[in-house]
Amino acid sequence: VAKRLEKLKTTIFTKMSMLAIKHGARNLGQGFPNFDGPEFVKDAAIQAIKEGENQYARGCGVPDLNSAVAARFKKDSGLVVDPENEVTITTGCTEAIAATMLGLINPGDEVILFAPFYDSYEATLYMAGADIKIITLRPPNFSVPIDDLKSIISKNTRAILVNTPHNPTGKMFSRMELGTIASLCIENDVLVFSDEVYDKLAFEEDHISIASLPGMYERTVTLNSLGKTFSLTGWKIGWTIAPPHLTWGIRQAHSYLTFATSTPMQFGAAEALRTSDTYYEELKKDYLHKKGILVEGLKAAGFVVHPSAGTYFVMVDHTSFGFENDVAFCEHLIKEVGVAAIPTSAFYLNPEDGKNLVRFTFCKDEDTLREAVERMKAKL
Ligand code: GLN
């Protein structure tokens, strides 16, 4: 393996999902729904296939989808963007992350991450040769330590990554936190990469796109995707929204990473994004119900459950069960209890920081959630 990837291990998601299958565990680890996406979206993709939409798409996206993304973003954030020059369709948000890092970061550039972080930020920053700076968010509230941020951010900082609602903690960045980040970025001429793939799973507060704060659009890349909102994670449809001077770098990277994204799936995605707000309300209602089952169950099983305002994840403290760390606990959980979760040390540069914390997802059907909860109550 190349030197720049030497520090990386097999992704924790692959590892835990394989172990879950091996041990017949209920999988509350990797964040993918075990139920299907909506029929009208699937039908639109099938129709596109039957109508012969099966060759390479335009590199920056099927025009219909670029427009649907811009229209949805206007409804959500109030920002008016040019679908042709500011929206780029990618193969999942994971490619959007890679294209953003590779297209806009130079070797040696300082980039700030909030830990715990989604593992692909770290991996793609290694690929780009960035110098990663970490700010740690700590339980129970995972609030932004503003003084740490002020001392780390400088004229040498090229970019800061914001992820709200936040994977794995479920934290939502408050307007005040985003405002402080924004003014520090303006002061120091720093870019913001804002991963908002869980924006439709904001349960307790309204989601805020940092791009919509005064003076921020011109320095922000907003990243999003279809998978979480429409329970179609396997379609791998994502996108970036950024002003033309930033979109240019992203598109250059995207052109040589994947060139273009699956054509018929983009037609399906466009249909999805045009749906009415009722869909999103129903989705949230469903997820709130599932969240209730999991959170109550985890408490009854003896965990300390940290508050989660958004995403389909919750973080718990497992230390009352007496295991050495998160990995040891998750191994026991999968082998002896029959439930898979994600040890969070994989989301920190220093694994010690995550040793007390484990992430569970509730993007599973009710039977799976209830069975997992029963197993934990009986066997932990
Ligand atoms: N985003 C998903 C999660 O956090 C996993 C995506 C992946 O497996 N790469 O569970």
Features:
alpha/beta, 7-stranded mixed sheet, 4-stranded antiparallel sheet, globular, binds glutamine
Write the layout of secondary structure elements.
Layout: H1 12-22, E1 26-27, H2 39-50, H3 63-77, H4 83-86, E2 87-91, H5 92-104, E3 110-115, H6 119-128, E4 131-136, H7 146-152, E5 157-163, H8 175-188, E6 191-195, E7 220-225, E8 237-241, H9 244-257, H10 263-273, H11 277-301, E9 304-305, E10 313-317, H12 326-337, E11 339-340, E12 342-343, E13 357-361, H13 366-379
Helix pairs in contact: 2-10, 3-10, 5-6, 5-9, 11-13
Bound molecules: glutamine.
Glutamine is lined by residues 11, 13, 30-31, 167.
Structural commentary:
- This protein is an alpha/beta fold and 380 residues long.
- The protein is 43% helix and 15% strand.
- The chain has 13 helices and 13 strands.
- It has helices spanning 12-22, 39-50, 63-77, 83-86, 92-104, 119-128, 146-152, 175-188, 244-257, 263-273, 277-301, 326-337, 366-379; strands at 26-27, 87-91, 110-115, 131-136, 157-163, 191-195, 220-225, 237-241, 304-305, 313-317, 339-340, 342-343, 357-361.
- It has a 7-stranded mixed sheet, with helices on both faces. Strands 9-10-13-12 form a 4-stranded antiparallel sheet.
- The longest helix is centred in the C-terminal third of the chain and has 25 residues, at 277-301.
- The radius of gyration is 20 Å and the shape is globular.
- The protein starts with 11 loop residues before the first helix and ends with a helix.
- The structure holds glutamine.
